[in-house]
Model the fold of this input.
Amino acid sequence: MEFIAANFAPVMFAGLIVFLILGFPVAFSLGAAGLFFGLLGIELGVFTSAIFSWLPQRLIGIMANETLLAVPFFTLMGLILERSGMAEDLLETVGQVFGPLRGGLALAVVLVGAMLAATTGVVAASVISMGLISMPIMLRYGYDRSLASGVIAASGTLAQIIPPSLVLIVLADQMGKSVGDLYKGAFIPGFALMGLYILWVFALAIFKPRMVPALPPEARAFREPNGSSGYLSLGVLALLSTLAAVFLAEHMEAVHTWWQGKPVEFVPKDEKIVVAMCGGSFLAWLIAVVNKLTHLGLLSKLAERVTFVLIPPLLLIFLVLGTIFLGVATPTEGGAMGAMGALIMAAMRHRINMSLLKQALNTTTKLSSFVMFIVVGATIFSMVFQAADGPVWVEHLLAKLPGGQLGFLIFVNVMIFVLAFFLDFFELSFIVVPVLAPIADKMGIDLVWFGVLLAVNMQTSFLHPPFGFALFYLRSVAPEKPYVDAVTGKTMAPVTTMQIYKGAIPFLLLQLSMVAILIAFPGLVTSNLDKQVNVDMKAVGEQMLEQLNEEEAEPELDLGIGSPDTAAPADTGSALPEPGATEGAPAAPEDDPVKALEQSVGKP
Done:
């Protein structure tokens, strides 16, 4: 027992691992470990029984946490969009645009995955939707099964890092940082990771073209009456939209100056990107609407289809991310507007009914309850762990690592990568992050950069063979047995589990490469944040102290002695002695304040 009392924190952490290995749910393992070791610590005298008096206040704090309100809002938004058929429309349309290229279908999956990530933030919805829709098409036209599986699973995980992401909300809450700051910091890394996926598809198209064949001419649906593809019209519309967006981005400061009525010299890069994208998209949508209403015939069928399918999700992205980046709405308010926007979009497409709404609300309630149970369990565990000086033990353990900040970052990311084999991002966020964040802060590491770095690393938990959740989601919708293709009538071979695992490995390595890039170039995250105002707190304290002293300093009490207004006229002779005073005696004895007062006012 003496050994346990002397090493209570490491024993408690080991006990949690035992609970998890035994197969108990994570939420209950955290709570049970916290309560058990709390009672054991009281019995051994590690801390007093007053520790459990903190628990009600902690639980009330969880219920009053407005940041976590964003979780059900963004979940509901994603589920409504997924069930209303938006993913199907996007995949079909973008697939038709890029299909004639080698690897075009894979490229379409990556782009649609990024767009779904920016509108839903839910990995399961993205992977299942794209697996059901794009997997049969890719297999039909000869795509390699491993590549098709890997690109679908990896593109779905972009919802982890591209805002609005649920993991970024949880990380912001655990680190005590603003959700908006983490969204801004993750903006460029998220799309940079998408760029790595696209480069990998292009490399396969060049060096292994048989793995990524082009869409055959008979599979291209949008054709003009004269047989042309309509790409010229689409290209001109895209060029006009891009020029408008670039012009708006370059003159964003002038727009802000006009809007606010005062000079604005700096606008954050992420805000420029979102607002410029919205402006360019709105111009394309306006041209398409005018063309459709006036029957001018300026746009091809493909250009109209792309415009009317892509613009609504892009406007929803601006409604959610734009209002957050502009400071108009908090992430919770942005999530609420996004959920309402998704309902309006589904209603405008006549794709929502009471059954769909009930399913979405039911799934949202389940996921939100799952998150809250983990938060409660993690709170109980962390409360007891902190009372046992667990963070001090972890800090001393990690402070001895060689290499300073770099050594700490390498060790932490390797540890997260290994733990991601067994734990998902929710569990990692509530178990590991609260312990690591204070240590990173003491070492001078920017917590926003640290949070985005961990979020990219936690993506690997979805692609880890054999426990990756994205692989499980894809396995549930990928064909397990030979089937007859509905279009060609051919018998298609199934997709095996090993092919899914094999296809995930290259994208897993790309995610780890992104982690290394962020460590080497932290400016990819920090350059998007609002400029911090450096304040000299010492100078501010001295100034406040001076003002306080000036206010407290009052004029001395004037009793009329020697006052210029009440003094007697100057006399060249000697002054008369006070009554009762002898010559040469002091006029106000310091040892008798009563006599001094009598001499001041005159004794009768």
